[in-house]
Amino acid sequence: MDYQKALEWIHGLYRFGSNLGLERVNRLMELLGNPQHQFQSIHIAGTNGKGSTASFLAEMLQAEGFKVGLYTSPYIEKFTNRMAINGIDISEEEIVRIVEKVKPAVEELAAGEVGQPTEFEVVTALAFTYFALKKPDWGIVEVGLGGRLDATNVVQPRLSVITNIGLEHTQVLGETIAAIAAEKAGIIKRGVPVVTAAEKEEALRVFQDVVAQKETKLWQVDRDFTYEIRQAGLDGIIFDYQSPWRKITGLEIKLIGRHQARNAALAVAARELMPLTFNEESVRTGLVRTRWPGRLEVFSREPLVMVDGAHNVDGILALRAALKEILVGRRLQLVLGILGDKAVDEILSLIIPVADAGIIITAPDNPRAANPYEVAELAKRYAGKTPVDVIPSVDDAVRRAVDGLPTGEALCVSGSLYTISEAREVLKELLQA
After folding, report:
1. Could you tell me the strand order of the sheet in which 83-85 lies?
2. How does pLDDT run across 323-352, given as a tens digit for each residue?
3. What is the structure's pLDDT at 174?
4. What is d(CA 425, CA 313) in angstroms, rounded to the nearest whole number?
């Protein structure tokens, strides 16, 4: 088997769809020798900010000399981005070796009563098998969808982390904040501490109930851990942090947007709650080293060209707030490609009015993509006098936007992470050649 055949086998599992539940993945892990129990883990759930928080925490631990595995989803550039050791993605050769190890167990499971594992369950098994072989000191594991029934919920973490809670995947997770919080709270384990950056009272009440049942403690950003932003802009953020044990001034991150300071503060709080001696120097170093592609990522300063994978309402709200702060004196062109199963009209109502220089509606190469012509008609309701064009190909849309971008204006490509993935390839060619 070569890498391409391994990928075809993995992605071929997509046809079995999404089927939440832990029975199949638990059985698969048993057949593989329970690799998820062969490394210490931190489990991270939430609506937005999971990847950034995971990356901040991984970099802090790496700066301290620990060997750290990171499992995130989805990927931005290529499949190997999904799993890494100390910031180095798994190699194509290692993917082949791990697939050859996991595939017989998948086939055995599929032939039995439990049935065929899903693509995400298999990818999770690949990641945990990889970590078991590489023996990291810590594995940072990001939830795929929800938490309670997510395939990653087979880990027994030393700490559970929950970022913010917003409405997402309501057809699966529930239509209220409380219902979604209950799914996220499914990662909470008996006796394992929990730290959250959730702000909504409905979510926090759910978490309090669950930690009482699980006989553990809930720690909260804004109550137990606080932060204050001192400076924010295109160069990143500088903020102060305070906990019950210490105050740290002048922490710096290079990620853009005030919401990233909250993610960073959550990561520092998580680091404080880990069963390790706290090392301020490694925290500072790790934070400033952290990069997270596709999240207000700047490709050019003049003209200003950015991409941001804001794919739900909370993400769009964070993007809108960041753009209003960044774009002082600049007009904005927007390229937007979103999925049809999102809150399309609400997303458009929030972001379209910010784009005063021009709007291009496009569509990622994905069967779930919203029809760009239908999206454009909705967008015109909120665009005022700003022109709305349709260019179905992300590649063509980005090229058109960059070619026509005057000095002094800004371009932001946003929407689905699939859109961002395609856009980044074009922008690297056009602006980083």
Report:
1. 88-89, 83-85, 68-71, 138-142, 40-45, 159-162, 194-196, 218-220
2. 999 998 899 999 999 998 888 999 999 999
3. 85
4. 25
| Sign of the torsion formed by the C-alpha atoms of 18, 48, 414 and 55 | negative
Cα angle: 18, vertex 22, 23; to 5 degrees:
105
Using CA atoms, how far apart are residues 299 and 412, in angstroms rounded to an integer? Answer: 10
In tens, the pLDDT along 200-253 reads 999 999 999 999 999 999 999 999 999 999 999 999 999 999 999 999 999 999
pLDDT band (50, 70, 90) for residue 170: low
What's the token pair of residue 414?
A: 């946003």
User: Which of 273, 289, 305 lies at the terminal end of a domain, its last residue?
Assistant: 289
Which helix (H) or strand (E) segment holds residue 332: the answer is strand 332-337
Please give the single-letter amino acid code of residue 363.
A
Report residue 53 as tokens: 């928080």
For residue 367, give every residue at least 6 positions away whose Cβ sits within 8 Å of its Cβ, in sequence order, or none. Answer: none
> Of 289, 315, 348, which residue sits at a domain end?
289
Contact present, 59 and 286 (Cβ < 8 Å)? yes
CA distance 229 to 349: 28
List the one residue out of 220, 210, 217 whose CA is nearest residue 266: 220
Residue 239 phi, psi (nearest 5): -145, 160
CATH code, 401: 3.90.190.20
pTM of structure:
0.95
